[in-house]
Amino acid sequence: MGKNIVQKILSSHLVSGRLKAKTEIAIVVDQTLTQDATGTMAYLQFEAMGLPGVKTKLSVSYVDHNMLQAGFENFDDHLFLQSFASKYGIYYSKPGNGICHQVHLERFAVPGGTLLGSDSHTPTCGGLGMLSIGAGGLDVAIAMAGGSFYFSMPEIVLVKLSGALSPWVTAKDVILELLRRLTVKGGVGKIFEYGGEGVKTLTVTERATITNMGAELGALTSIFPSDAQTKKYLKMQGREDVWQPLKASANAQYDETVEIDLSSLEPMVARPHSPDNVCKVREIQGTMVHQVCIGSCTNSSYHDLMVAAAMLKGKKVHPDVSLTISPGSRQVLEMISKNGALTDIIAAGARILDVACGPCIGMGQAPPSGGVTVRTFNRNFEGRSGTLDAKVYLVSPETAVITAIRGVISDPRDYDMPIIIKDPKTFLIDDSMIIPPSENPAQVTIIRGPNIKPLPKKEPMPDTLHGEVLLKLGDNITTDHIMPAGAKVLPLRSNIPAISEFVFEKIDKEFAKRAKEKGGGFLVGGINYGQGSSREHAALAPMYLGVKAVIAKSFARIHRSNLVNFGILPLTFTEENDYLVLDQGDSLELVDIKKQLKPGGILVVHNRTKNKEIKVTHLLSSREIDILFAGGLLNYQAQKN
Ligand code: F3S
């Protein structure tokens, strides 16, 4: 039987296991990436392993999330990251060089390779035929140390594309349509492999928009073939030498097939407060808006900003709208400034922001209270914009621009003339903001400002866990709910004692205080607990506050792994109705854990307050169980060494 693309890459990187769905496998990681919000912690974890340098083919440290240097903390972090990268063999992409995924696609991604990134949108590089997976920082630290990446073998879904996109319909509309059909849970335990005749009509950056937002489906990753479009893109980036063809064998098998006729699609929009709350733009056109933001790792390519410039040329942003534009990379910004497109954007009244994540991670540009903001980003969870009651709509750049001009949500097909953007002959290549590692690492001193605090330690798991339910939560709790981002909190990412004060801040201001007073305890959650970003602080900070176990109806993949990595037991109800038996303040106990905790096993939770017992289970492999008993992945790795 022939192989599909995913099987081909996994086979050539397989270290242990078989490619059988739902069994644990481990692969070699060729490349890693970190960003500043996850990188400092990943590097402290790598340092704790005591190695002289990284063992990957390539590792890159990006600075893109936290660019507001309102205090010393951010610059402290940047100096730490730069000196650490220099000493340990990591490339350092300076602040201002671009968003990790955009720059990695441009300068480093390789078809057929594997990439592990401490950011949930790492699958962006799947647009170039690289198997790219988002994970917690500790998993990335282990990969940098030459360790394998373990995961449950997903099912492989073929997304068969036919036809071609109509004018004003974009790659963003393709992934929004998929989210409409499959929801934010539709990709859990799956990889989406794109194929069919429609694939060749999409450029690499269009493909990258689709694979980027595949993360919102809950998928492990998404991937496109490597074909003539890929070769053309790499040639334009001066990297044609890394191209290799990659396609599924003619008789390749898939677990499932989804078909999309590109020519049947229309401009789509995700309404508040979930990326799968999707409808046609037509259905909500006329909604008044306060703000439009173009950028993020989803939609900030050269093509995206050239479209924006062409639509804005000779026009003005609506008087009641604030339009912001954040280019995805310095390459893009330099090109649009050289060819005059930037002038058209500025003349129309747009505000040019830093080359960074910016408003996508709530670093500035919070909408007004109760405001409406239309964004080309990938997430619209409540509060992520920085304003709790703001309404965030997710759209393509084309829909965003016409909306900014008209002041109300509008269908780009109503724009008054056709726009054609020609590809440049070549991209502007200048890697001077990517600093290679030192040739004399022994002479490099790591710079540690006061914001760089040591890693908190965790003891091995005892045989009995007891404590109160510290908080009971509902469905779809995101990592933003658990560990908020934004200008106040992000600077504390290297300082766990300080950042842990903000855990669940938006849901229950007293949480951190109560957790400390009670000596830790349990959390109870609903469906899809921990969805959203790869933010390991959403496990690390609760661990610091003494959270011992989370009992939920189901978990999002990366967060579940992060809980294990930090020694917190992720348990699921065998009967969902037992959720009703647990309340905040109930005193719980799990005994004989060493005997009870086995792969596929069932544990009994005693609710001492209500004098009831409930049964819980888990998806833990025997390796994960060993990690939990060791008190987390770092302890486990140290024991192994
Ligand atoms: Fe940055 Fe937003 Fe992407 S925070 S990495 S632009 S999802």
Can you put this structure into words, describing what you see?
The chain is α/β, with parallel strands linked by helices and 641 residues long. The chain has 3 domains: 5-264, Aconitase, domain 3 (2-Layer Sandwich); 268-414, Aconitase, domain 3 (2-Layer Sandwich), CATH 3.30.499; 465-640, Aconitase, domain 4 (Alpha-Beta Barrel), CATH 3.20.19.10. 28% of the residues lie in helices and 18% in strands. The strands form 6 sheets. The protein has a 7-stranded mixed beta barrel. α10 crosses α12, α17 (537-544) packs parallel to α18 (557-565) and α20 (622-630) crosses α21. The mean pLDDT is 96. Bound molecules: FE3-S4 cluster.
Say how many strands there are. Answer: 27
Hetero groups bound?
FE3-S4 cluster
Annotated CATH homologous superfamily of the largest domain: Aconitase, domain 3
Q: Taking Cα atoms only, what radius of gyration do you get, to the nearest Å?
A: 24 Å
The biggest sheet, with number of strands, parallel, antiparallel or mixed sense and barrel status, is:
7 strands, mixed, barrel
Any descriptors?
641 residues, 21 helices, Aconitase, domain 3, single chain, Aconitase, domain 4, binds FE3-S4 cluster, 3 domains, alpha/beta
